[in-house]
Design a protein that fits this description.
Blueprint: E1 12-18, E2 22-30, E3 37-46, E4 50-51, E5 54-55, H1 58-76, E6 82-87, E7 93-102, E8 105-106, E9 109-110, E10 116-117, H2 120-129, E11 139-151, E12 154-157, E13 164-165, E14 167-178, H3 179-190, E15 195-201, H4 202-210, H5 213-218, E16 220-225, E17 230-236, E18 239-246, H6 251-261, H7 265-274, E19 288-293, E20 298-303, H8 304-326, E21 339-342, H9 351-358, E22 363-365, E23 371-372, H10 384-395, H11 399-403, H12 410-424
Parallel strand pairs: 1-6, 3-23, 6-15, 16-21, 21-22
Antiparallel strand pairs: 1-2, 2-3, 4-5, 7-14, 8-9, 10-13, 11-12, 11-14, 16-17, 17-18, 19-20
Helix pairs in contact: 2-12, 4-10, 6-7, 6-8, 8-9
C-alpha cells in the first residue's frame, strides 16, 4: 500500500491520532492569508481495539473512531470527508540512505553537455532513486524525507535547484512500515466513508507542532512518551537525522504500581496521574495514599515518596534506553537544545527536573505553539501529534507522499516539491 498524497485544495484540515491509551481528532481551518491553521474542534476518547500500534479488535476500534470524529464534527460544525492519520508501532523501521545521478546523461547516454543546470525534475529523479532499496515483501516505504544534497564536490546544500553541475547526490531519511499494519489502520477509517490523505509517523507530526527552525538547525531530540511505545526523532541541520520506536511506554510505570500495591490497572493509573513524581526527592513522605488491595480485599496506604521511588526507577530505565537510541544518530552534539517531551507520559509530575538532574541535559515539555485557538484547549504534550497532523498538509517535505499524488499533474508535483524544499530550511 502506498500513502495517499497530502496535496489538497480544501480549507479544512483534519488529524486523527490513534493511540493505545486514547484516540484524538482535531479539525482546523487553513487561513488563506498566512497559511496558518486555526483550531475549530477537537475531541478525545479512551482507546480500545489497538495495542502498540497493532489492531487487536477491528470492530471496537472502528466504533471508537466514529464516535471521536462525530464529537469533533459537532464542536467544529464541519463535516469530515478526509484526514491525516498517525501511525506508530514496533513494525516501523527507519534508515538513512543516499543516491546520486549524472546530470549530463539522459537515459544512460551522454548528451554532450559537460555541465547542466539542476531542475526540479532532477530533484524528483534523485529522490526517486533513493527509494531503490531492497525491502521485504511485507514492508513499504512510508516517508522519504530529504536531508541534504551535494553537487559535484559541494556538500550540505539545502536547495540545489538552479545550480550547475555534473553529479547530483541526495541524502534522505526513509521510514518503512509493515504494509499490513498501514492498510489495516487506513481501512478502519475508510470503513466510515472517509478518505485517508496521509499516514504519518507520530513523532514527525509532533515535531511540526512543537519544534522551531533554530532548534532543528542546531540540534534537538523529540521524545514522545506514549502509553505502550516511546517514539524518538533526532533533528540537526534543519532535518531529521534519526528516528525510532521503543516497545515500552508509560504503561510500564502503571504496571509497576499495580504489582507493587496489588491493585487494579485502573487504580494504579489514577495513582500515577494524581500522586506519582518522576523525581522522588520532590515528593512528600508525609502524604499517605489510600488504596484497596484487589486480592486481599482490604484497604492500605503508602506514602507518595515511596510510590515515587518505584516510578523514578522505571522512568530512568526508559530514558536510558532513549539515550542509547539517540547515540545511534550519526551526528555531532545531537542534543544542543536537549530534549522536548511529548505524549501522555510527558504529563508526569517533575519529569523535566528528573531528566535535568539525573542525565544533566536540557529538557522541556512540548506544547503546540503553531496552532491558533489551541491554547488551554489542545496545547498540551498529549495533543502534539494531533496538532502536527493539522500542519502536515502545509509543511511536509515527504517525497513519498508528494510523488504518489494521483489528482495533480506532473507539473504540479514539481512545483510542490520545489516549494517544500525552499521552505524546509
Amino acid at each position: 500500500m502506498n500513502p495517499i498524497s497530502n496535496i489538497s485544495d480544501s480549507k479544512i484540515t483534519v488529524g486523527l491520532d490513534i493511540g493505545s491509551k486514547s484516540i484524538k481528532c482535531a479539525i482546523g481551518e487553513i487561513k488563506a492569508d498566512n497559511n496558518n491553521v486555526k483550531l475549530l474542534g477537537v475531541s478525545e476518547m479512551e482507546s480500545a481495539g489497538i495495542k502498540k500500534g497493532v489492531i487487536i479488535d477491528r470492530d471496537v476500534l472502528i466504533d471508537r473512531i466514529e464516535k471521536v470524529i462525530n464529537n469533533a464534527e459537532l464542536m467544529a460544525d464541519e463535516k469530515v470527508t478526509k484526514l491525516s492519520l498517525s501511525i506508530t508501532g514496533n513494525h516501523i523501521r527507519c534508515i538513512n540512505t543516499q543516491s546520486a545521478i549524472s546530470l549530463n546523461h539522459t537515459n544512460g547516454l551522454s548528451n554532450g553537455i559537460k555541465e547542466k543546470v539542476i531542475e526540479d525534475s532532477d530533484i524528483l529523479q534523485v529522490l526517486g532513486s533513493s527509494q531503490s532499496i531492497s525491502l521485504p515483501i511485507d514492508r513499504d516505504i512510508l516517508h522519504t524525507i530529504p536531508q541534504e544534497y551535494s553537487v559535484d564536490m559541494l556538500d550540505e546544500i539545502k536547495n540545489p535547484v538552479g545550480m550547475i553541475g555534473r553529479r547530483l547526490e541526495s541524502k534522505v531519511h526513509l521510514v518503512t512500515a509493515a504494509t499490513t499494519a498501514m492498510s489495516n489502520i487506513a481501512n478502519c477509517v475508510e470503513e466510515l466513508g472517509l478518505s485517508v490523505e496521509n499516514i504519518v509517523f507520530q513523532p514527525l507530526a509532533s515535531a511540526l507542532a512543537v519544534i522551531d527552525e533554530d532548534e532543528m538547525e542546531l540540534g534537538i531530540t523529540l521524545v514522545e512518551l506514549g502509553y505502550t511505545t516511546t517514539n524518538i526523532a533526532v533533528y540537526q541541520k534543519g532535518s531529521i537525522k534519526h528516528s525510532a520506536v521503543l516497545p515500552i511506554g508509560s504503561k510500564s510505570i502503571t504496571n509497576d504500581i499495580a504489582v507493587m500495591l496489588q491493585i487494579s490497572i485502573k487504580e494504579a493509573e489514577e495513582i500515577k496521574i494524581k500522586y506519582a513524581s518522576a523525581l522522588s526527592s520532590m515528593s512528600s513522605s508525609d502524604l499517605m495514599i489510600e488504596f484497596s488491595k484487589t486480592f486481599k480485599n482490604k484497604s492500605a496506604s503508602i506514602s507518595e515518596n515511596e510510590v515515587s521511588k518505584y516510578v523514578e526507577a522505571r522512568t530512568q530505565e526508559i530514558f536510558q534506553m532513549v539515550f542509547q537510541e539517540i547515540s545511534k544518530a550519526d551526528v555531532k552534539d545531537p542534543l544542543t537544545y536537549g530534549i522536548v517531551l511529548t505524549g501522555g507520559g510527558a504529563l508526569m509530575r517533575n519529569i523535566v527536573p528528573m531528566l535535568e538532574k539525573t542525565f544533566s541535559i536540557k529538557a522541556r515539555i512540548g506544547q503546540s505553539i503553531k496552532i491558533e485557538a489551541a491554547k488551554d484547549v489542545a496545547d498540551g504534550p498529549n495533543f502534539t501529534t494531533c496538532m502536527g497532523l493539522l500542519l502536515w498538509p502545509l509543511h511536509t517535505t515527504d517525497f513519498s507522499q508528494l510523488r504518489n499524488n494521483q489528482n495533480k499533474s506532473f507539473k504540479g508535483i514539481l512545483k510542490r516539491i520545489r516549494h517544500t524544499i525552499e521552505n524546509m530550511f
